[in-house]
Each structure stands twice: as C-alpha cells, then as structure tokens.
Fold these 2 entries.
Entry 1:
Amino acid sequence: MAPTSDGSPHASPPAEGTSFEDLPLHEKLKKGVQEIGYRVPTPIQRGTIPHAVSGRDIVGTAQTGTGKTAAFLLPVLERLLEEPRGRILALILTPTRELALQADGFLRKLAGHTHLRGAPVYGGVGMADQERALHGGAEIIIATPGRLLDHIGRGYVDLRSLRILVLDEADRMLDMGFLPDVRRILGHLPRERQTMLFSATMPPEVAALSRQFLREPKFIQVEERTVAAVGVTHLALPVPSQLKLELLLHLLQDETMTSVLVFARTKHRANTVVRQLEGHGFSTGVLHGNRSQSQRVRALEAFRAGRHRVLVATDIAARGIDVKDVSHVVNYDVPHEPEAYVHRVGRTARAQKRGDAFTLVSREEEADFARIERLIGMTIPRVRVPDFPYDAPSRPPPGPATAARRPPSPERRRGPPRSARRGFR
Ligand code: AMP
C-alpha cells in the first residue's frame, strides 16, 4: 500500500485492524461477506466503502487482485437496498467478458441475502436472455461497452432510473479502444448519479475522463500484491469431467483467446487434449516429459511465433518456460499441489501484466481447488458459461481418419474461420 500525505488529493485507506463490522454495511451484506469467506477488508475496501456508501464519487487506483470488485459491489448494494426493484439502478462497465463474469459471480454471493439481482451482458452469446434482464429482470447490469451499445441501439434499455455507474479497469478499456464506446454510453445516463472509476494506472485519457464525468471524487490509491499474479482474472468453471473437452472447445470459440496455455495433469491427458483440439482445427503444440528436447523447443517456438494458438503442457514440462503474451491460462485439470496453480497462472500476467485464468473444476476436484483458494487467499468465483450446453450429451470425438490426420490448411492452423469465432465484447 502507498500511503499518501494529507496534502495530496489521494486518501490512504484507514489503518489496518478495521473489520467489516466497522464498515457502514447492512447486516444482509455482512452475511454475504461472511459466506463468501472474507474476514478482513482489504485496503481498497477500507478506503472506498465508507465514502462510496455516503454517495461520493470515487477514483480508485487499484489492480485486479486487491479486492477492488467487492470495494465497489458492496457500496452499490448498500445504496440500492431501499430502492424500488425491477429497473436498472446500477451499471458496471468492464472491458472483458471474464471480468463481467467474475464480478457477476461475486455479486451473486454478496447479494445473496438481498432482493437485488445482477445480470452480465457481453458479446458472443445470444441477445435474448440479456434483453430480458435489461427489461426489468435485474437491477445491476455488468456489461462490456460494445454489447451494451448494441442493446441500447435496439431501443429497449431504460437507463433513466440509474443511480450508480462503475467504470472498472478504465485503463484497460482505453488499451482495448473502448473509451469512445464508454463516452457514448455516458451520453445515455442521467447526469444526477454517483460514479466510481477504478483503474490500475492513470494514463492522461483516463484522468481526463474522470475530470469530465466525476464530481469532486475521493481518490483512493493502493498498491498491493497478492500471492497469485496481480492482474490475473481468475474464474472457476464447474463442469462434469466428461464435458471438460467440450467446454474447452466452447471457450476457444472466443477470438480474444489468442494464445492459450492449457495445463493437463498427466502426459496421457495432455496428448488426448491435443488430439481432440487438432481434430477440431485448432493448431496445438504439446509440452510434456515424453517429448524430446528438440520437440519441446519446436513446440515452444511455434507457440511463441503464434503458429500454435494453443500449447498443452504438464506442470513439470512447463517449469521455467518463458512465453510472453499468453492471453489465457486454462487449467484443464486442477493441480494436486496448490503451488502449481500459482506457477501456472503466473504465465499469463507476465508480459501484458494482465490475463485471464480459467480452471475447469469437476466435482471430484473441488477439495483440491479449495486448497488453492486457501493458499492464495482468494475466493475464485464459480461461473456457468452462458450458451454452453451443460445438459447435452457429449459429442463423439472426431475420428482419427478425418480431421486430425489431414494436413492443416492456413485457416485450420489458426483455429476456426473468423466468421465462426465469436468475440465476447
Ligand atoms: P479483485 O481484485 O476484486 O479481483 O479480487 C481479488 C480476489 O480477492 C478475489 O478472489 C476476491 O474474492 C478476493 N477478495 C476480495 N476481498 C477480499 C477480502 N476482504 N478478503 C479475502 N479475499 C478477498
């Protein structure tokens, strides 16, 4: 944490030792906090919650991993407890589907004892469910800017009752080119509202945005590291083990998953995953102990150069490998050793300082996964992937004589054709 002097506009959070009991939150929310497993508020929470609950605008400088999501969700919930239901009262804008899903996962838990409902809204999935949520099914919308604008363009999104706007990861929205969309959305919102802006860094464009759209904000700044890589969005995707492959294929439809490191528990499982992915047209390399040194080097080079979109690895083979620009880590299997999780996800935040980590968790792996959460001191939200047919029987694998044996065409090497892939923003 970086305490700042009283003379600066940046407030440092109150001293450690503050507990959730000391924060101005309703018992219903404290119950949610307890159930999600948070014992002590993090610095960004201690700093933000009292001011945000009193209605102040907030500029929070904090990265993923500091507890910033609950730092804005809890005051949002507190302030909306007494509001009439059935209309959109708060909007949380996030740059990626992963962050939207993560915030939605936390919201479900934290709001568990309230009547308030949230809905994630992002691209790449059908519009109909989201339209229903936007029509009065949810009070808190967690949206990526592009998809929200699509809905707004269709004329049924009523934002007139909106009380609170949260801009999450504003610097990442800038990096991804979303600030014009954010400004357009701001044009649709009532002027009389509370606005909170969170950003890991404060580039001039973000500072300008906050000067233009926030009123006398309280500045809260924390620099805090957690055990697991800072900047990583962690999601747990509960799934029956026999559907893991289907789910991985489903996830890979997302074109923002540009370079994906997949971890499997054994060589055998790694080989199976590779065969299946190749059979479905994804160019895939493999790293495990049965591969010769030169095979490993070649696989790594192909991944680094972007010729393989996916690299499947076992933990031992992946030790010490250095790959920049890994967009996603997918834990196909939960590691037995909790420390392995930290090594694995550390790969994604390296170069870009941010990335996403999905863990496919079967019922049998829940206990191992809980050990990981204890080690890294985080509750990782469980998320159901919308549009994934959890109840459908699993597809038979493609026969070895068909797709997998054919030499890959250029499109096949890069994954499915662009038109078949789906963006999630
Ligand atoms: P965030 O920075 O919001 O992405 O949160 C990072 C991680 O910290 C998430 O897994 C949260 O569940 C967890 N977390 C947030 N607040 C607390 C807290 N007060 N105590 C323990 N873990 C927390």
Entry 2:
Amino acid sequence: MIKITVPATSANIGPGFDSLGVALNLYLTLEIFEETVQWHVIHDYGTDMPDDENNFIVKTALSLAPNLTPHRIIVKSDIPLARGLGSSSSALLAGLAMANTLGKLNLTNERLLEKATVLEGHPDNVAPALFGGGVAAFYNGIQVFHAPLKLPQDINFVTFIPKYELLTAEARQALPAHMSFKDSVAASAISNTLTAALSVGDFNTARKLIEMDQFHEQARSHLAPHLEIIREVAHQLQIIGTYLSGAGPTIITLVPKKDTQKLLETLSKMNLPGKLLLLKSDFNGLQITKND
Ligand code: HSE
C-alpha cells in the first residue's frame, strides 16, 4: 500500500495575496491499494463526489499520466471543503503525486509545483502543501519562484471555520478589477514589510501588518462577516493578527502560545456558527510512504 499525505494550507496570511501561505496540521490522506479494472475511489463525501475515473483526484492524476493503471484508492480528509483551507490544493497534489509514483515519472518537487500551480492558478496553497511550513511564491506564467517564509515557533493558529461553504471562484469575483498605482505600491509594501519582519522574527511588527491587507479582505468582507467580529474580539484581548484564510470564509488569528487559551475561551463562549480549532504549522508538507 502506498500512502500519500497532504496538509491543509492557509493562503494570503493577510496582505500576501496569491503569494504567501502556510501548511497546517489537518490532512488529506490517499491510500493506494491493488490494481483494478476500473478506478475505484472509496471516500465518505457522499454520492455527489464521483467514485470512479471522474473523481477529481483521479482526473488530476490522469491529466499528468493518461495511461495510468486503475487502482482501488481510499481518500480521507479532515480538511473541510470550500472553506479557505486548501482542500482542493491538497486533492490536486495528491492526484499529481499518485501519478508521479504509480507512473514512475520521477518528477521533482519543482516540476510538481509547476504542474500544481498551473492547475490551481496561483501557488500560495500548493507550495506550502508540497513543502510544509510557510512559503512565499510567485508564478509568472512560466516558472514558479518560491522561498521559505519563516514563521515564529511559539505561534498557534486559532481557526474559526464557518458552517457555510464559499467557492474560491465566487470569492475571486468579488475582487476589484483594477487597483491604482499608488494603492498597489502601498499594498505590496505592506506585504514586503511583513515578510521582512517575519524573516527576522519581529512578530510585533508582523502581526500589525497581517491586519493591513489592501488587496482582498475589504472586497470580500460581505462574504466573510466573521473576520471583523473575530478581529474585534481579539483586539479587546490585545491580540493582533487576524486575517481571512485564503478566499475564506475561514478566519485565522495568529496567536502567541501564551495568549491562545484566552482567545479560544472567549471565542467559544460566543457560539459562532461553525467550528473553532487550534491548529499548528505542519513542517513536513506532502509525504509518501510505502508499506508492503
Ligand atoms: N490567494 C487565493 C485567493 C487563495 O485569495 O483567492 C484561494 O485559493
């Protein structure tokens, strides 16, 4: 049996729109068993999700290796769908990694990242899902440039996952078609300064910049009303560092370990409609293990 494990991810981290992301400790696992006549995908997502060659993971694998022999596979995931935690990126990478392994393609992680980025459109989820930890990345239509993004060790990700789904396509439609030169300079300066602050471990500066996004959060605020609510509650506790995870609707607050419990307790008393989780960085990224 071959087992592929891919972590969840949180993209943007505030102002790093389409470029910053971090892997988190929720996982999709794909177990590959014996060869079969037709693809047989066992999952518990219900009847709407195909269990044959039309399954997204299988289709992604076949896009890379069209002659792949069908197998029986089991997919399990604790990454909620369409919530801004990289569920589709994890499935996409699992499919590519399955094709790479079964098809003996010997593609490097660099090539896998390029393939995944082309399919996803931007690298901010797929890059950290592949490499683990924080990643900064840029795709120019030809090549993916990427570098590790240092995040503080003593940090937790207090994560609120609303009950409702929000498709990335819908959340991207809410984005402005244009930004002025002046606004673009300011928005990218905020993001640059955030990465510099993180690189030297200056979380005091970083956490303020995380809340200064000018690319997407304002435009998406009607789709993710919990952002303002949770940010405000955190501020009352002197905790700064709340942002919209990916395209939303999940909200994440980066919290020093010492402040984590008080934020969790306060938020859980509010009974917001959704799930409150304490997540941590995943530093392994995509893993493949083989058991005979
Ligand atoms: N950077 C992307 C966005 C992440 O915010 O739309 C979602 O895939």
